[in-house]
Design goal:
GO molecular function: GTP binding; GTPase activity
Shape: globular
Largest sheet: 7 strands, mixed
Organism: Zea mays (Maize)
Protein name: Ras-related protein RABF1
Keywords: Nucleotide-binding
CATH topology: Rossmann fold
Number of strands: 7
Strand order of the largest sheet: 2-3-4-1-5-6-7
Distance between the termini: 13 Å
Strand content: 25-35%
Structural class: alpha/beta
Radius of gyration: 15 Å
Number of helices: 5
Amino acid sequence: MGCSSSVPARNTGGLNTISNDSSPDASSKDLRAKVTVGASFLSQTLALEDSTIVKFEIWDTAGQERYAALAPLYYRGAAAAIVVYDITSPESFSKAQYWVKELQKHGSPGIVMVLVGNKADLHDNRSVSSQDAQDYAEKNNMFFIETSAKTADNINQLFEEIAKRLPRPTAS
């Protein structure tokens, strides 16, 4: 069984690195990354334990203002959305909240949304508490996970959790 998902990602804290950390040189060989230029496009394929294959098509606009007007184009028809912030930066958490509101306005009904606190390896420099982020995610019907692109902590779990929550295609 296969499934393909378009995933727009608003990145204020390391999504490109997160996606690249799931490449063959990272800790798991299950995910593969291909990077393109521009508003970065990444394609990832993941095999779940039940033999379901999920292909992620990820658009990373890196939270750049020059792509803000185009953002709704990425949201339309997307099955999932990843919003990344830097746990050491309250400003990036505020920006993440803005992008969550944009997704809620322009995203597909039933979109799977995840809030990702990146740079978990810098816990001594933390400025955004895990509890605050968890509470925000729950209030906005998102799931929350903290990752470290540097150490690859929870990178595969992020994509696995999204894949598990995606609707499965129905047999015709």
